[in-house]
């Protein structure tokens, strides 16, 4: 029996060039189902086009932290960049983003998978790769945000822009998809392919594959410049060099980065 495949993408962040490269790779492999773990907008210049593309192409779309705070059209931001990204969005897109579900659960090869953006409690609570045991276990718990349902045995999330895979002795599996549009350290867009028997409670082979897709980052920067996006230098450092913008002006306070590096 041929196994089912689902592509998981996350944190596109307005980087349409990276999104199109990843979608072409997914299409090229003949994968039809795509689930998106959130953060469509902000940081990159084409949030509006990214939202439309994901709405049309992804079967599941989940809420991210940027999708939660940015499309509040009644809110005025102090930052010029935040105002610029907010102004990009149409009203119907703002409504669509803010109404996205918090998580999505399904069975595959006897495993119960739960996907959300950042953690089981909130899209605004970040769990980095170097979390402790309590944070690990918290990812598999039911919370007011996830609702009551069967507990997951596999949890996939995004938000940190930093992919990883981890298993404990109870066979609980935690993975992070990394980011399509704003990948840290290695700025090459990354996404995940899950393979197994979809919807099945029976144990069967199950795989989690990380795929890196090179793309034309210079064309993406040119688009950002053409559109007059603020914070172009910061965007350049992220998508060309994989260095998070918060790290430049904030020594010792990297938000996404794995470890401070001596560079
Ligand atoms: Mn993000």
Summed up:
This protein has 263 residues and is an alpha/beta fold. The protein has 8 helices and 10 strands.
Task: Write the SSE topology.
Layout: E1 4-9, H1 16-28, E2 33-36, H2 47-57, E3 60-61, H3 65-69, H4 80-88, H5 91-98, E4 103-108, E5 111-116, H6 133-138, E6 154-157, E7 164-167, E8 173-176, E9 190-196, E10 207-212, H7 217-226, H8 232-241
Parallel strand pairs: 1-2, 2-3, 5-6, 6-8
Antiparallel strand pairs: 1-9, 4-5, 7-8, 9-10
Bound molecules: manganese (II) ion.
Manganese (II) ion (MN) binds at residues 11, 13, 39, 64, 159.
Q: Helix count?
A: 8
From the alpha-carbon coordinates, what is the Rg to the nearest angstrom?
18 Å
Which molecules other than protein and nucleic acid are bound?
A: manganese (II) ion
Question: How would the global form be characterised?
Answer: globular
Which CATH class is shown?
Answer: Alpha Beta
Contiguous low-pLDDT stretches (5 residues minimum) are 250-254
The CATH fourth-level homologous superfamily: Metallo-dependent phosphatases
Strand order of the largest sheet: 3-2-1-9-10
Class from helix and strand fractions: alpha/beta
Largest sheet: 5 strands, mixed
Distance between the termini: 50 Å
Query: SSE order in H/E notation?
Result: EHEHEHHHEEHEEEEEHH
Mean pLDDT: 94
Number of strands: 10
Helical amount: 25-40%
Strand percentage = 15-25%
CATH architecture: 4-Layer Sandwich
Q: How is the CATH topology named?
A: Purple Acid Phosphatase, chain A, domain 2
Q: What is the domain tally? A: 1
